[in-house]
Design goal:
By secondary structure, this protein is an alpha/beta fold. The chain is 36% helix and 23% strand. The protein is built from 4 helices and 5 strands. It has a 5-stranded parallel β-sheet with strand order 3-2-1-4-5, sandwiched between helices. Helix 4 links the parallel strand 4 and strand 5.
Length: 103
């Protein structure tokens, strides 16, 4: 199978799961990285997600992992959720064949 790699003309489109300290840390760090676009933040609390999204210029806020999985415009997902949620979320993303980063 051939793997598609983003070119400079096609940025990697990222969603971040979470709207707390770790998500903010990822977003601040990504300001120094080329070749990507953060297209969505997932937060259970939409208002908190919107606040973080507005601070970093992210256009969309989703309120569930399922909504992120359903989006065709997301190439990679950064998991910035509490540790006890990681296994369940990684399984869901893997089943959907979404690239993911979990630290």
């Amino acid at each position: 199978a051939q793997v598609s790699v983003a070119s400079p003309k096609q940025p990697v489109r990222i969603a971040i799961l979470g709207a707390g300290f770790v998500a903010d840390f990822y977003l601040r760090a990504l300001q120094h990285v080329r070749g990507h676009e953060v297209v969505a933040i997932m937060a259970r609390d939409a208002a908190r997600g919107r606040t973080l999204a507005d601070r970093h210029g992210v256009p969309d806020v989703e309120t569930s992992v399922a909504a992120v999985v359903a989006r065709a415009d997301i190439d990679m997902v950064l998991i910035a959720l509490p540790h006890d949620l990681h296994v369940e979320v990684v399984r869901e993303l893997a089943a959907a064949r979404k690239a993911r980063v979990c630290t």
